[in-house]
Amino acid sequence: MWSDNETLRDLVNFSHVAEIAAERIVGAKGEPLSLGISGDWGVGKSSMMKLLRTSLEERDDVNIRFVEFNAWLYQNYDDARAALMETITAAVVDQALAKKATLGEKALKRAASLLGRVKKLRVLGIAGSALFDYATQGSVTPFVASGISAVSGLLDGDVTGEDLRKVKELAADGIQNGKELIKEGDEAEVGAETPRKAIQAFRDDLEATLADLDITLVVMIDDLDRCLPKTAIATLEAMRLFLFLKHTAFVIAADERMIRQAVRSHFEEVALNDDLVTNYFDKLIQLPIRVPPLGTHEVRAYLMMLFVDAEASFELEQKEEIRIAVCRRLGRTWKGERVDKSFVSGLMQNCPPGLLNRLSLAERIAPLLTTSPNIQGNPRLIKRFLNTLSLRSSMARIQEVVVDEAVLVKLLLFERCGDKDAYAELLRAVNESENGLAEFLADKEASARGDAEAPPLEKPWNDAFHQNWLALDPPLAEKDLRGALYVGRESHPIISRADELSSEALETLDMLLRMTSASATVDAEVARLTNQEIGRLADKVIAKARQETSWGVPKILNALQSLAGASPSAEASIIAFFSEVPSSQVKASIVPRLSQVEWGKRVLAEFLTRPDLPTPAKNAIGKVGKSK
Prior knowledge:
Helices cover 57% and strands 5% of the residues. It has helices at residues 15-27, 45-57, 71-74, 80-98, 105-125, 129-137, 161-177, 187-192, 195-213, 229-242, 256-266, 274-284, 296-309, 316-330, 341-345, 353-371, 379-398, 405-417, 420-432, 441-448, 464-471, 482-486, 503-514, 520-527, 531-545, 556-564, 568-579, 591-594, 598-608, 615-627, and strands at residues 33-38, 64-70, 216-222, 248-254, 287-290. A 5-stranded parallel beta sheet has the order 2-3-4-1-5, with helices on both faces. InterPro entries: KAP_P-loop, NTPase_KAP_P-loop, P-loop_NTPase.
């Protein structure tokens, strides 16, 4: 099994991106900086943060202290804005205490006062983000939350005395409601100090303390896109208190699309267009860094490295040597150099046979995992794919089900990434088959592998994913898939052809499927069954008939005729089936057979209404009509 947590081990040569970000922080030389690490869910933003921290920790040319903040952990437990302020301030105070022997008395006193100031700011924060905006910026932006009703007059661009009075009342209410958070002796001081002065004093003291300590404070905020809109926006608002202070750098990891949606959702009472949301981000993020999506080279290397890491016979040192070589090679793929089975296995003196097979597997499935709309090279989804595969392999071993791992992989790919109706068709074929074969895949696999004589693929089988899947080894049409589907039954039921059928019905089904011509004996056996059993047999025969791609006089037509003549419900089902047969599959040779029975004439009449019916079939139906 592979862990889904963030990692310090770079498997896809992302360290260079972290190095670039680290250089920007060091190059700022104490000037304020904010970076945004963006990317879709699961692409490795948290891992990128850890790589960035490691890169900064290894540098001797800058004195850095880190603060890691996860707003998601505080959601519903504490005010995220106050929690961020307290976390940052506590880290600075701890650093000051560690250096108290070298700091002057004034610097120590200033550092010690920071926590008290945060407590006062927590009081002011109760008034709502409208007050926070007003206090930090001297005006109220469109990005207000709980205080929006009190400051609505400030949004029209015409600030009046009445508007300011409302904000002051809001501040007074907040201070009154928050008195219990501070010591009784500080009450007069809080009431006397305006919100704006209190915040500015806090900023000044914090900046001076960082200068005294001669450190750059790097604040890493992660999982912001997991938060509810209220928590996400509160955290972003709190950042404004610290932004643009010297000796600070903020690094925010989030899916930008999720945060944009949070902005719109949280401030739904204010009309926000895309430009306003973009401006909001531009003020917060000076340097956006996007985690690059994985291409086929990276996905193939990632799969191979996951398999190498899981190899129990390798020491950690050997795995690390392979990882470094793979990342170095990935940096040269633009020259045409590849990370493939030959390269990776060549990094080992004796590659274990099991690992060699998995490296081959990685080569085959990497293009599908890269291009599939459901995975798109997402590292987290790739790990989940492999973990599911591992679980099914374990189940097969424990229950003594002999299954080829390559078959398991191919079916799991289809289940996760293929068309749902196409996958249901495969399940249906296996369930209906006596020997677990999905025989309808034979022509499709032949077509995908370049057989010019095979019928052309139709929707949904003719898109890029399904064609590549059909061409992927091993071919499945002649393999018994029951075992592979059995160990994956947590996602679909296993229904054998014997379910809900009596022994007499099963024997009759065997006779129907072996028919090569009309048979009075088979007709008599069908007539002995109940209408309910005939209906079930019709469903199973129709499932078999769906595998036909040319409707002249295939053998299965004999079984359909026998069932249609025995039950009105079976007749209706068979007529409905023929209404779904593509016009291109209808041949002229079917017309004489269907014209002999009433239900067949109804099918022919429906065929004749189709504008795309092939001319030979249309002419044959017309001749039958004229002869009568």
